[in-house]
Amino acid sequence: MIVHIVFFKLKEQNKDANLRRLQSAIEGMKGKVEVLRDLEVGIDFNGSERACDLSLYSTFDSKTDLKTYATHPEHLKVIEIVKEVSEYTKVVDYEK
């Protein structure tokens, strides 16, 4: 199994609305991206200086499936929102 984790730091402008918008867009991929086995989105409640604002935990059967996900049209729609509302993202991919 492949685990794909992404952390998002959002721009301050309209942060609350953009958090909900991004969460909804990511969760909207469920059932639309066939290679996506599981997906969980979390919004940070801590607010510490070190914290990111939102996280994505997702799983795939293989590295090939992760590559397929990366170019899937539904994922590309989410990427456009990410580019619009995020200061930066960080990612970790590992095999479990």
Please give a handful of descriptors for the protein shown.
3 helices, 4 strands, four-stranded antiparallel β-sheet, Alpha-Beta Plaits, 96 residues, alpha+beta, single chain
Could you explain the architecture of this structure?
With 96 residues, the chain is α+β, with helices and mostly antiparallel strands. The protein has one domain: Alpha-Beta Plaits. Helix content is 35%, strand content 33%. The protein has a four-stranded antiparallel β-sheet with strand order 2-3-1-4. α1 runs antiparallel to α3. The radius of gyration is 13 Å and the shape is globular. The termini are close together. 15% of the residues are buried.
Task: Set down the secondary structure blueprint.
Elements: E1 2-10, H1 15-27, E2 38-43, E3 54-60, H2 63-70, H3 73-85, E4 86-95
Antiparallel strand pairs: 1-3, 1-4, 2-3
Helix pairs in contact: 1-3
